[in-house]
Each structure stands twice: as C-alpha cells, then as structure tokens.
Specification:
It is found in: Membrane. Belongs to the type I cytokine receptor family. Type 1 subfamily. It is a single-pass type I membrane protein. Pfam families: EpoR_lig-bind (PF09067). It comes from Latimeria chalumnae. The protein folds into four domains: 123 residues, Immunoglobulins (Immunoglobulin-like); 97 residues, Immunoglobulin-like, CATH 2.60.40.10; 39 residues; 32 residues, no CATH class. It is an alpha+beta fold. It is built from five helices and 15 strands. Strands 3, 4, 6, 7 and 8 form a five-stranded antiparallel β-sheet that branches.
Amino acid sequence: MCAWLYLMQLLPPKVFRSQCRPPEPSGALFFFSSNSGLPPARPCIDGCRSLNQETFTCWWSAGDNERGSKANYTLMYSVGEAPGRECPNYVGGGAQTCFFDEAHTQVWEIYCLNVTARNEFGSNTSDEFCLDVIDIVKPDPPSHLSWQLNKEGSRHSVLVLWRPPETVDVESGWITLVYELQFKRKSEPDNWREKGVLRELQLELFDLAGGDTYIFRVRCKPNKSGSWSEWSETVHVFLPLQRISDNTLLAGLIVGVITVAFLTIGLTIVPLGKRFKNTIFPPIPKPRISGIDSNLLKKGRIDEINNILTSFHGYVPPQYNEQSWEDFVLVGVDDTT
C-alpha cells in the first residue's frame, strides 16, 4: 500500500474540471418572469478547496439566470468506481456548500460531483466537476509573523519568523509546507524581492541598506502539489544607518598613514639616498695611462709594450740574462741535492 501511495505522488496532477455553461438561449426562456412556471437555471460548481489535506469543501452558484420558484439543491458525488452518494454535510461550509469531513476525504482518489437544482416545475443539473483532493489544497496564510533586529559590530541583520497556519497540522507529518518570503523597501513600493522556497520557519537577511523601512510578508503551499496561500499580514521594520565603529575608523587611519609613509619613502628618500651615496663615496676611476691602448696591455706581447714605453722619458726596458737564470736554477738544484 505504501509503495502504491508513493507512485501516486510521482504522477502528474489528475484534475478534471468542467466549465459551467449558461442556459442555452432558447427564445421562450428569456421572456418569462420569475413566476413563469419554469424549472430552475442550471447551477454551477464554482470550485473546491482543502485547507489541510484532511477535509475539503465544494461550493456552487445558482446559475447566470435564476428563474422560477426557489430551488432546492442536491450534491451527488462518486469516488473512483464506487456508486454515487449524496453530500455528507450541507451546512459545515456555509450556504450552497458541501463539506467533506475526515471520514469522507481520501487523497489520491478522483472525486466527481454534480449539483441538481429542483423546484415544483422541474430540475436542472450542473456539469460534472472532477478533482483529486491532493491538488485542491490551498492552506491559510502563515500566522504570527514577527521580526528581530540583530546587531553585530557595525552591521545589522533582520531575522523574520512565522508560524504555520493554525488550520494545518504539520506536526503529524501528514502534510509538509514550504514557504516564500517577500520583502521590499518602503521607498520602492513595486520592487518586491523574493526568498524561497523555504522549509524553515525563519530567515535572516543580511546586507540590507540602512536608513529605510522594509516591508515583509510570507505565504505557504504544500510541498509537491496544491496552490500558494494568500499573503500573510505585513510587518514593517526600520533599519538604522550603519555607523562606522571607532575601532574600524582607527584601523583605517593607521593603514592610511602607513601607506602614505611607504609611498613617500619610495618616491623621495630612495632616489635621494643614491645621490647622497655618490656624494660621500664617489666612484673610483679606473687606472688609465695616456697614449696606451688598454687592449694592448691585455693582449699585446712584451716587446711591443716595451717599444711603446720607451717613448716615455726615463723608461729603461728590463734586461733579461738567460745565463743568470741558468746559474740560479743549477745552484738551486745543487743545494737541494
């Protein structure tokens, strides 16, 4: 049985609604007064609604052209393939209604209804109206809408709270509701913003601009079927301007001073420091002899260098005595031996 109910939940809604049609304009019908001895006009089933998926109510109207004597109404209904039965309660939902209590309400079953109007001159029956209770659930609006203004440091947030409709028993688990929250600034009357679909009974809103009044409202519907309820009553919340705390102001001031200091050092002191260093410690010039190519000193032979240096006054090229070197080497060898 549980598996069957689960499969029925997955199926698309099965609602079959016939539109009410006014009486056909036969020439003789529109020229008689209300006491002309005609049967009543065809009634019209206007709709059905369940507040909580446990009971439901259907209502009808007398038709577009009520005529003849006062009519009596009888609502007949059938569930699935079962034989037709008469309305169990004509007074529970008001005049021209039929109330189905818990004993006469079944979900995932097709109800088909019609209403017959009778007087002493005849009768007239409405079109058939078919429904599934699971699809006509339209709960009452949520109740006890309230709010809390929270402050954390220099920031404000608004916690909006509400309760389920008093006509719905959500604690039993027979029906689960979801919610939609709307809010707007009072200065922007047509700019509603939405938060949904919500399963909790509260929502905290952050980063709302201060200095204005906000308007909140909420509605609900069954989780997987049915219709949205009407909107709840609104609540108005004034959100003050967010003041900058002393600590935040001091921190910003310190950061600004440090930034300016670093920029000053980078743009002025560093370039001046390089010039000051060059003044105190001038660069040492490289040694340079006028008239001598430095490349020749690096790569030239010794005789070429001597030829150039002899042009300078007092320069005497060194004399190398190969014999003396040989004697030195020989003496060194004899001494070691």
